[in-house]
Each structure stands twice: as structure tokens, then as C-alpha cells.
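Thread: NAP complex, take 2
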Amino acid sequence: MDLFIGFRRIDSVKFPVLVLGGYGNFGGKISESLAITQGISVTVAGRSKQKSELFADQLRQRTGGKIDSVVLDINKKDFKDKIARTGVKLVIHSSGPFQGQNYDVAQACIESGIHYIDLADGRSFVNGFDRLDAKAKENNVLAVTGASSVPGLSSAVIDEYFSAFQELNEIHYGIAPGNRADRGEATVKAILSYTGRQFKRWQNSQWEDTYGWQEIHRYKFPDPVGRRWLASCDIPDLELFPGHYPSLKTVRFYAGLELGSLHLGLWLLSWLSRFRFVDNWSRYSKLVTRMSCWFQGLGTDIGAMYIQLKGIDLNGQPKILRWNLIAEDGHGPQIPTIPSIILAKKIAAGSLQEKGAKACVGLFSLMDFTEETRMWNIWQQVDEY
Ligand SMILES: NC(=O)c1ccc[n+]([C@@H]2O[C@H](COP(=O)([O-])OP(=O)(O)OC[C@H]3O[C@@H](n4cnc5c(N)ncnc54)[C@H](OP(=O)(O)O)[C@@H]3O)[C@@H](O)[C@H]2O)c1
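Output below.
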């Protein structure tokens, strides 16, 4: 049975989810995964009528699902009113960058009684999100920030192996996408926003200063990835984890570009920003995204992530556990979308009853993630020393 609510028709049987940025790089993948999920209907949203309708049409043809589209601009005054009138029960917000973004979207959803999930990787955005907790509880909704690779997947991996340690002291981790992967401007803008900029990191039980896209080094992933360049990045986990895992003395996070020329090129740009020749590279995100696409035919379609945990094992001996995630056949860009998909499915099925506003920590397990990756060529390897 269909109902007419507000200005759109929604299917009363299926759980209606709206994906903001729903035809973007990651949002598009989220829309597609949810469109093939039984019991969920999808509305694709963004600022462009043409792009949202075209994407919804293509998705309808590919999946046979009931896909709607709607024009929404998160910066417009009528956003709250429009989102309330869609009649959806969950919004997944992928319209980054989240660095410098306020909580208007989350607040609009909470006040309209709509569950909310975002892919935020902005440090202050994620760490200040719990100020929405009381309102979310009052309105009986769940609002989750950072439901993506960090801190969603990173915390699920740590939680999985946490019990193998009497004391977990250090976490070093990094993400290295394959160069052939599509890139969205919002992600490029997010990285450029801290390239060469100073930020704090928990090192030997105190806060030390470091700089975005510096400390370059190589990390050896399992075959077929091999050695990849990595550089220091500013993410929510750097502030979130020392409080969440109190025995931690050091938390370091890195990301890298597969092509040495691009990785080192960005490193050179970081020095210009560190020495204040350039204030903030993010204003050049369109140009940088376009230029990086010129090289997209080079390198591989294999992405990787690692998390190294170091501490004392249950017998009182030093222990290192290294978790590696390898994504082949161009499936790497699915990884940042999976946490939001897992949560959306849980909320739709009624199996996640928690209410309030919180960072994506402890809401899904590594087993949930592994289940969700079965349809992709994504595999994990764990080495212990
Ligand atoms: N936490 C993590 O681990 C993690 C990992 C990866 C990515 N991310 C984050 O995920 C976000 C999405 O990345 P992406 O690569 O998918 O970006 P993208 O391809 O640029 O997609 C952004 C989408 O948002 C839409 N949009 C932009 N401004 C909007 C506005 N004012 N109102 C409504 N829609 C708007 C865009 O369409 P229009 O411009 O046509 O409106 C586009 O569809 C980024 O912020 C990135 O930092 C987080």
C-alpha cells in the first residue's frame, strides 16, 4: 500500500532512507547497496535535479528497486522543512566535507524525528557531536557520526582484538586506496583542509604537535599490494580513542596515494602550507581533484588498510597484532560505505534500538563488517608477533 505524505509518495511497507549526496562517490555506492536491500526504499538527494534524477533512473534500471530523487541543499534555509516533508525515517549524510560543517543537518533530522547517520571524518565535528545526545534521546532517534572507515571500522577492529591484550598501548594505522579508484571532491577537500596544518596527536601519553601529510614513510602491505607511501592525517580517532581506550599511550593515523609522484607532490604542497605560503589548500579542491584524475589510468585498482595494535598480552608478554584489509577488483571504495549500510540495515530491521547522538563506536562488530563484504573481493589477514 502506498501513502501520500507531504509532497512525496512513500511506500508504507519499505523503510524509507534518504541519502544526502546520494549520487556522489560514496553516497552513490550507499544508495545502490540499499536499493538492493529488501525492505528498504531509497531516495537520492543532492543539489542537482538533473544529476539526482539521472542517477535514480540508472539505479532503478540496474536494481529494479523503487528509487526516488529529491533536490536538497543542506545550506538552504528551507532544508529542515523539506527534509521533514520527505517522510523518510533515516537520512544518511555523505555531503561532506565535514571539516568546518555545523550540525544543522543532524539537528533538522533529530527535530523531525528522523534517524541520522553520517560519514564524517572531521575531527571537531565528530568529537563535539554528543552535544546533540539529549535532544536525540528526547525525540527517540539514533544519530550516529563517523559511520565510515574511521572511526566506524577502525573501532570495530580494535574492539575485536582488544581482549587479546591485558594492556593495549599503541595503535598505528593507515589507509592506502588504489590509484584507479574514483575520487570525490568532498574527500579531496577534506584531506586538503589539513594538508600542512598543525594538529595534536596522542604520543607517549601526551599531546604532541604534528602536521598534515608529513612524516612520509612506506608501509609493506601483504601481496598483492606491497609497499605503499603513507603520510600523517588528522582524523576524529586521534582525539576519540585515547579517552575511549584509557591504556593507550600512542595513536597514529596515516593515509597514502599509490603513485609516488602524487603522494610526494602533496607532501611538497604540505610544506608550502606549513610555512604559511598557502593558508588552506582546500580552496583548490576542484583543481586538485581534476588533476589527480589525469593520472587515474596509472597504478592499480587495489586498496588496503592496516591497523597495528601493540601492548601486553594476557601472559604479560609484549604483543603486536597486525590486521590488514585488502580490496581487489576496484572494490576498495565500498569500504567507507559499509558501516553506514550496516547501521541502516540494523535500524530498518529494528535490531538497533539504541537512541541518542554518538560517534560510531561499538555499534557494529567486525563480524558484521565481514558479512557485509562477502559480495566484494575484500579480504582480511591477521598476523601476531
Ligand atoms: N570517515 C571516513 O572514514 C570517511 C572515509 C571516506 C570519505 N569520508 C567522507 O565522505 C564524504 C563524501 O565523500 P565523497 O568522496 O563521496 O564526496 P563527493 O563525491 O564529492 O560527494 C558529495 C556529494 O554531496 C553533494 N553535495 C555537495 N554539497 C551539497 C549541499 N550543499 N547540499 C546537498 N548535497 C550536497 C554532491 O552533489 P552536488 O554537488 O551536486 O550537490 C555530491 O553528490 C566526504 O566528506 C569524505 O570526507 C569519510
